[in-house]
Amino acid sequence: MEQSEMLQFLQQVAQQKVSPEEALVKLKNTGFTELEYAKIDTERTVRTGYPEVIYGAGKTAAQIVGIVQAMKQQKQPILATRVTAKKAAAVLAQEPQLQYDQIAQTLRLPAAQIEQNGEIAVVTAGTSDINVAEEAAVTAEFFGNRVTRIYDVGVAGIQRLFSKLDLIRRANVVIVIAGMEGALTSVVGGLVDVPVIAVPTSVGYGSHLNGLTPLLSMLNSCAAGISVVNIDNGFGAAYNASMINHLAQGGKDE
Length: 254
Known about the structure:
Elements: H1 3-14, H2 20-27, E1 32-34, E2 39-41, H3 44-48, E3 54-55, H4 61-73, E4 78-81, H5 85-94, E5 99-101, E6 106-109, E7 117-124, H6 130-142, E8 145-150, H7 159-162, H8 165-169, E9 173-178, H9 184-189, E10 196-200, H10 212-219, E11 226-228, H11 234-253
Parallel strand pairs: 3-4, 7-8, 7-9, 9-10, 10-11
Antiparallel strand pairs: 1-2, 4-6, 5-6
Helix pairs in contact: 4-5, 6-11
């Protein structure tokens, strides 16, 4: 709690607008919920504007259920990423109100009303990149962004990209997802006047090195305005894109 907020709160106690019992509960708030295996950051939205997201890989279904239940008690929107279908089935058996997306491998329980503002374009080089793209798209929508999906427009048939340029240029930020040599990022970066976030994927043949080749290609792009996230990190790309989009939309609304 910031100093100004603390002062205002204590004034409410002095004015008997807040009871001493309510004040004690608030002052004892540590900002996280303690579980045996996790500490859930209940103040993240206040600090950053975005809620905590559950990283499902490495967690058991029982652990995900416990975290979900604790977050529900705090009335927080819920998004879990990297949840396999088998693990999701076990979670859904106890929390059937969650929505599972098998392609994106996400479980989510959105807030009652999510207003989607601005626009993010999610562009893939190939169909094999769609699982990463859907992780990005679902995350971006969860964070309150409109998403346009433009899939399978890689440089091997570049006319496919040109046919979708109007859609891509309409967005406030573009996420470009590519495996193989990652060339699509530089091409898109040279055709748009908005930030491009590049996501290398672990899709490709031997010397592709499980995503290292497109990662290095994207980092060395000669097109300006490109930032790069880690291999297969659709979530991270969507988070950054959401921040950019909300800033851009805020400027347009003024």
